[in-house]
Amino acid sequence: MPMPIGHTLSGIALLYAGAPSWRQSRWIVAAVIFFSLLPDFDLLVGLVVAGDANAYHHQASHSLLFVIAAGLLGGAVAARRGRYTGLFIAAGVIHLVLDILAVDTSAPYGAPLLWPFWNGYFQSPLQIFTDVHRSGVRGEFFASLINRHNFEALLIEIAVMMPFFLVIYLSRHAKMNARKGSA
Ligand SMILES: [Zn+2]
Q: Is the Cα torsion angle 167, 173, 176, 181 positive or negative in sign?
């Protein structure tokens, strides 16, 4: 799994790739980042309920059904009903894609994308991101995140996400120049 910073950057990239109105609303920005991170709330649920962050990790919340249902629910309660449903679902689907592109060193490997229809796990043969070294035990979890491996993982996430921002920036710039040229 990428770290929260990688998932947050993916949400911000999604916002920048879309309509300017998305970025003008603080509420929409917060909601997209929330849906980009939502599947990993299973770590917090595990910590609180079972005292073990791994107890429910990469289970139901890492399925397409979950992110679609969450996006539909979020879209339904959003200010303009239904208008942002696709955006919220996209943020969740991107989370799942990033996760299966990451090294996973604890079984079951990958994410159960088709749960509950099929209980198998998907894992990309090409893994761009590395795993996160951490303890699942409550009381150790947050402190265990601070280590050299995770710092390097963070740098990889930022390095992988930067080209997306560059492409989005350059395409917007090209569009603006084309508009100026035709004006
Ligand atoms: Zn995840």
A: negative
